Every structure is written in structure tokens, then in C-alpha cells.
Amino acid sequence: xxxxxxxxxxxxxxxxxxxxxxxxxxxxxxxxxxxxxxxxxxxxxxxxxxxxxxxxxxxxxxxxxxxxxxxxxxxxxxxxxxxxxxxxxxxxxxxxxxxxxxxxxxxxxxxxxxxxxxxxxxxxxxxxxxxxxxxxxxxxxxxxxxxxxxxxxxxxxxxxxxxxxxxxxxxxxxxxxxxxxxxxxxxxxxxxxxxxxxxxxxxxxxxxxxxxxxxxxxxxxxxxxxxxxxxxxxxxxxxxxxxxxxxxxxxxxxxxxxxxxxxxxxxxxxxxxxxxxxxxxxxxxxxxxx
Length: 290
Known about the structure:
- By secondary structure, the chain is an alpha+beta fold.
- Among the domains are: 22-69, no CATH class; 92-188 and 246-264, Alpha-Beta Plaits (2-Layer Sandwich).
- It has 11 helices and 12 strands.
- Pfam families: POP1_N.
- One of its GO terms (biological process) is tRNA 5'-leader removal.
- One of its GO terms (cellular component) is nucleolar ribonuclease P complex.
């Protein structure tokens, strides 16, 4: 009797955690990844970098800081003889839409020809080349510099309305966005992303309930997890509140400013074989005119 009681006390309780196969299912991985990037957004290449780099949390993102192996010679060799690719998707993109004359008139207030190229440079205005310049607060040059940016115009399509993309560092985004909204007088929110954020959070809560409810089930009994709907991936960036508007419009001029951060991927290719890599990777689309 004593031996039987001893055996009962020593008997291990059945583990409530699911087996590794169940934890590694796609639906459970998506829920776990979304939970881990609520505060710091992941780039599209985060998984690849996390296995090979020391990650740091900066500007609301998880970024690869330094490689875990000594790859300095390999990177230098790729830059000088082959091709090296960098993920710059954490850079923020601000989109401006409106009449070309009105855009150039107001943008001239935050830059100067004394520093080099401006938004109205002929080679950049055609949309063939990307330009770079330093922005200042409106009518404050050479004081109150905001920071360096790069920009590219969408090629003309025959109308007077143009589209401009301004790429800024996430540390400078809020100041530059505030200044752009001030000079164009864009105060009215055009679009709101509250619905998307709320639905995502509701889906996450439901997904957590499904995962917790299935915590005691194992293998064959865990059939409901396969039918559950995967959680939608988080859209946005670490510099924007998901419950705030991401697009503004001016009632007088019709100029619209949109925050396109983390909606457009951006990569940088360095090396003599960069064009060869792009030629072999990308294929021209067949444009059909009706």
C-alpha cells in the first residue's frame, strides 16, 4: 500500500503544452509571431536575419545589427566583385499627390538651391532618376534643418496631377510629416485604419482563445486548429499609431499626403553585378493599351 501511494505521488502530471509538431503549425506560428511584433515590427526578411544576425530594437523595428559569424571579408568581396543586398524596408515612405505646380510651390519652402538639387530638378522631375536633398523648416533656411531625404517622382501620364514619394529615416519621420502637413494645410483625415486595427486585434484575441482551448489536446484530437482562420499579419510600422489616420487631404488645394510606411519594400543592391542580378530576376510586364 505504501509503495502504491508513493508511486501515485511520484507520477508526473500530464503536460498541458502541445507537442512540437502542433506548436510549429502555420496557424500557431502566425499567432505567435504577431504577438511578438506588437511593440517592434518585423521586416519581411526578419526570420532570415534573426538566424544569422544579432538583432536590435530601434525606431520601433527589429533590425539586424551585426552578423553572428565573421563575414566582413565576404561582404567586402561581394561589394567589390559581385553583389550585396541590404533590406531598407524600415525607411518610411511619404506619398504626396496633387497638382505639380502646387506641389513644387510649397516644397520650395523647405529646401534651397544652395544645397544642391531640389524637387524641381529637370532630371528628377521627369521620374527617371532618384534625387536626394536636405529638408528645412518652412522658410527657415539655413536654420532648423530637419534632415536628409531621398525622393522620386512618378513619370508623367499626361495630366497635371503628379505623385511624389519621399523616403525618410524613421527617426525623422514625425518631424518631416508634421512640416509637410503644415505647408500643404492638410488637416482633414482622408482615410482611417481604425477598422483594420480593431479587426486584427479581435482576430488575435479569438486566435489566442483557440490556442489556449486547444492547449490540452494533442495530435489526433487537435483537429479544430487546422480549420481555424490564420491571423492577419500586422500592417504598419513602429512610428505610427494604428488607431490614427494615415492619409490627410487639403480642402483648398486637393493635395493629399499618405503614410506608406511598411507598405512598400525597399532593397539596396551594391556591387558591379547588381544590374545583372536585376536583369535575371525581374521580367518586363506586357503592357496592353485598350
